[in-house]
Write a structure and sequence with these properties.
single chain, about 260 residues, mainly alpha, MetI-like fold, 10 helices, flat
Length: about 260
């Protein structure tokens, strides 16, 4: 019980002021954002009608277009995602080892490797694709390079953390026995990080399939180019077919990756 004449408050005056400041700044940020993006109320009111009109144009899907205009692009998308993931493994593993202060305890090398990982993650896949389209020209090569370079940060970061979390016991035993560095890595580090490695690679492959589906919007090959062409020509029944195909591929990849992880991890 509180003493007579005293009132219990859940928050102190400083906490109440801080909460009020956070609410005020949040409201101000929302108002400023709405004014900056120039929301047009008429378009928002008309959006449901436009959406219904667009859906009516998308149905029925032009299934006959799949063999001639979608299948090849879909296969190319899978190749882009797979080759990009393989390229990521080739580049990310050495960088992850360099970023791990447990593998290579050299501070400058660790910092340089981590800078590479951060740089890779800070650039969106579409931006990487635009860069490589300018270098290699439109096509699947630009898509493969964009997927590979974008994934380095993801794979390298998680793999370096897995290396740092390994148990030092087996490592010290191998060093005491006079084992060379390569044997220490293969016999000491690899068995501990192998489950995490395959889990990271499979998860990233799944993500890359989804990301490669839209790279064609900027000319980097794959089914995105077919989608962009159909939208530019207002073939909405083909757009719905392509979107449905992408949806099926994503669901299939989710099931496949889950099955593979259960089998090998």
């Amino acid at each position: 019980m509180t003493a007579p004449g005293r009132q219990w408050n859940r928050f102190t005056p400083a906490e109440r002021f801080l909460r009020f400041s956070v609410y005020l700044l949040s409201v101000a940020a929302i108002v400023f954002s709405i004014r900056t993006v120039e929301v047009i109320p008429e378009f928002i009111v008309d959006a449901p009608y436009q959406m219904m009109d667009l859906l009516s144009r998308m149905w029925p899907m032009d299934t006959g277009h799949y063999a001639g205009g979608v299948h090849h692009a879909l296969v190319e998308t899978m190749h882009v995602a797979t080759l990009g993931t393989i390229g990521t493994v080739i580049m990310a593993v050495p960088i992850a080892m360099a970023a791990s202060n447990k593998i290579l305890p050299w501070r400058m090398l660790n910092m340089a490797a981590r800078l590479i990982l951060v740089s890779s993650r800070s650039v969106n896949t579409l931006v990487w694709a635009l860069l490589f389209v300018a270098v290699f020209g439109p096509g699947a090569v630009a898509g493969v390079m964009a997927i590979a370079f974008r994934s380095i940060g993801f794979v390298g970061k998680l793999l370096s953390e897995a290396l740092n979390e390994t148990d030092s016991g087996p490592i010290e035993a191998l060093k005491a026995a006079g084992a060379p560095w390569l044997s220490i890595f293969i016999k000491g580090y690899w068995p501990q990080v192998q489950p995490a490695f395959w889990s990271i690679i499979l998860f990233r492959w799944d993500i890359n399939v989804r990301e490669s589906a839209v790279l064609g919007l900027v000319g980097a090959g794959g089914i995105g180019m077919a989608l962009d062409t159909a939208m530019n020509l207002f073939y909405w029944n083909r757009v719905s077919l392509i979107l449905f195909t992408i949806f099926l591929v994503v669901i299939t990849m989710e099931i496949l990756v889950t099955f593979i992880r259960k089998r090998i991890i």
